[in-house]
Amino acid sequence: MDKNKAKPCIMYISRNSALLDEKVSEVKDRLKGKINTDTDLKVYGEADEIEESELANFLGMPSFFSKSKVLILKGVDRYPAKLLKVLARYIGDLCPGIFLVLTSSKERLNPRFLKAVRSAGTIKSLKVPSPADARRWLRDRAGSDGLDFSPEGMETFLENVDYRLDTLKHEYEKLYLYAGGSAQSIGPKEVNRLIPRVHNLRVFDLVDYVGARDKAKALKALRSVLGQSWALIGAVTLLHRCFKAMLYFKYHLDKEGSDYIRKNSKAPPYMVEKIIKKYKGFAAGYSHEEVLETISILNEYDIRFRDAYRPEKLMAGLISEIIGP
User: Fold this and answer.
1) Residues 205 and 317 in one domain
2) Structural element, H or E, at residue 72
3) To which H or E segment does residue 122 belong?
4) Distance (Å, rounded) from C-alpha 92 to C-alpha 116?
């Protein structure tokens, strides 16, 4: 058997849907110019209905237009067991030149289906890029493109995309079009003008639950963003701002605390006023010493999060340290 011959089936596994979508896009880009994508490439999303007759027509015969045919099935972990068993049968008896690309957010699938995939091809678990990966990519890419970021500008950029590598790559193009060929250093002002801040909405819930000292709900919100290291980094940033605002309120510096929130929030004015009122309420539930101690804890965790392999475990520990057992 030719060791260099591509296996007819590959399945990518990750809890991060954006990472799986990015991998599918890479596959589709590699196929351009190599096969007739109108007739020999078929892509099904997890919400698409798939008829067995369609599979039989596509997988049962070689192409008349290209050397290969490629079927991409996204989110197979959400397929009914009956369909997975049908797929297992086809995977075990694919015509030469026919390839399957599968994605799944879970490792535990129909045993017969998994056995067929392992026998015919490869299963790859995709590692979620860490905040350190995002920083390294930006530093390397900016260096190769000749873009000069100030240290503050680079951190603002990373914060605005929540250290999310796929979003970073997309938003980088905006900055490159804006500043490409310019000798001017890119600072926070230029970044904020072009790159809106992105946060998973559940991150805001997590911050509110920590502020309200509701550990059970905070841990529940944490579970909803598992596998999204960039979202957890964003949560640390938001928690730090929340408790710094609370510190102003604890010392009865209401104007300074309100101005601090207005300066650091991009929410509409009516929403900012709600945040101010909410944070004042949170402050009442903490002593001066607890707020100061929490800010110290957040400073320590901010450094640890940036290179963490399993940030969700760190976040669970952070929640326990702030709220208590």
Assistant:
1) yes
2) strand 69-73
3) strand 122-125
4) 6
The structure tokens listed for 281 are 């309420």
Burial class of 195 by CB neighbour count within 10 A (0 to 12, 13 to 18, 19+): buried
Residue 3 lies in a domain: no
Which residue matches tokens 């601090």? 260
264, 194 Cβ separation under 8 angstroms:
no
For the chain, count helices (H), then strands (E). Answer: 15, 5
Contact 110, 85 (CB under 8 A): yes
Residue with tokens 């926070």: 188
Q: Which residues pair with 186 in a beta bridge?
A: 149
Whether the model clears a pTM of 0.85, i.e. scores above it, the answer is no
Rg value, the chain, Cα: 24
Q: How does the average pLDDT of the chain come out, rounded?
A: 83
**Residue written as token pair 């979620």:** 128
User: Cα–Cα distance between 92 and 84 in angstroms, integer?
Assistant: 12
Three-state SS at 177:
helix
129-181 residue pLDDT tens: 778 888 999 999 998 888 889 999 998 898 888 777 877 887 888 788 777 55
Domain containing residue 170: 131-194
> CB-side exposure of 87: number of CA atoms within 13 Å?
27
Q: Which of 82, 107, 125 is the last residue of a domain?
A: 125
Q: How far apart are CA 302 and CA 192, in angstroms?
A: 21
